[in-house]
Amino acid sequence: MAFSANSEAFARAAMAAINPPLADKYANLIKLLALNPEAASKMRGNNSPAVGTEAYIRAQAASFSSSRVPRAPEPPATVPDEMVSFILHNYFNVPEANLERAKNEHLLSMGAENLVGELLERYLASVMEPRGWIWCSGSTVKAVDLIKPPAAPGGKWKLLQVKNRDNSENSSSSAIRNGTDIEKWFRTFSKKTGSNWGAFPDAEIRPLVSEAGFRKFVKEYLEALK
C-alpha cells in the first residue's frame, strides 16, 4: 500500500496529461495519501490497480477529473415494485387513475434525491477551492470530501466530511494518522426544519455558504444542463 517517494510528482504529471488545471490539486491529494496510505480508497474491480502504484495514481487521476464533469439527475433504472402502488391505493386511498403519475413522480424524486449530496459537494467546492481547499472528487480519500493542505511544511492538514442530513450514514473511520482529524458537518436535520449552515466548521468559509447560496448554485447548475 506504500506510495513511492516521487508519487506527488508522478501525480502532477499524470493529471497534466488529462486536465492541466487540476494538476496541483491532484498532486496535493496524492501527497496526503502518501503520508497516510490507509486513507486511500481502493478502486473497484477484480483487476483494479493496487493502492500506491503508478497505475493506481494514473487511474485515480482520471476518476478525479471525470467526476467533476456536470451530471444530470436521472431516475433509477430499477423496475418499481407494483406493491407500492397497491398500498397507495388500498391504504392511502390514492385513486387508481393517479397511481401511474404517483409512481413516475416518485422515480423522479428518487433521481433528484440521489443527486443532492453530490450537488452539495459541488457547491462547497465552488466556494472553497478558490480558498485553498481541494474537492476529493471521485471518492479518492476514505470518509473525506474536501481537504486543505497546511500553510507551512509539517503543518496540519484539514479534512472535512460533508453529509446532506444528520441521519446520513457515516463511516466508522473518524480520523487518519499524523494528527489529521476528520471534521464532520451535515446540511439538514431529519427531525426538524431548517439547515445547519451556521455550524459549518471552517470559520473562513462559514460566512460564504448558505442555503440561499446552495439553491442559487443548484438552479444555475441545472439550467446549464438543459
Describe this structure in a few short sentences.
By secondary structure, this protein is an alpha+beta fold.
Report what the structure shows:
There is one protein chain. The protein has a domain at 1-66. 41% of the residues lie in helices and 11% in strands. It is built from six helices and five strands. The protein has helices at 7-16, 23-35, 54-66, 82-90, 96-128, 211-225, and strands at residues 134-135, 146-148, 158-165, 175-176, 180-188. The protein has a five-stranded mixed beta sheet. Strand 4 (175-176) and strand 5 (180-188) form a beta hairpin. Helix 1 packs across helix 3 and helix 4 (82-90) crosses helix 5 (96-128). The longest helix is centred in the middle third of the chain and has 33 residues, at 96-128. It starts with 6 loop residues before the first helix and ends with a helix.
Helix content: 40-55%
The major pleated sheet works out as:
5 strands, mixed
Low-confidence stretches: 171-175
SS summary, helix count: 6
Q: For the largest beta sheet, what order do the strands appear in spatially? A: 1-2-3-5-4
Give the helix/strand class.
alpha+beta
Span from first to last CA? 43 Å
Radius of gyration: 20 Å
- Tell me the quaternary state: single chain
- Strand portion: 5-15%
Overall residue-averaged pLDDT value = 92
**Tally of extended strands?**
5
Order of helices and strands: HHHHHEEEEEH
Global morphology: globular
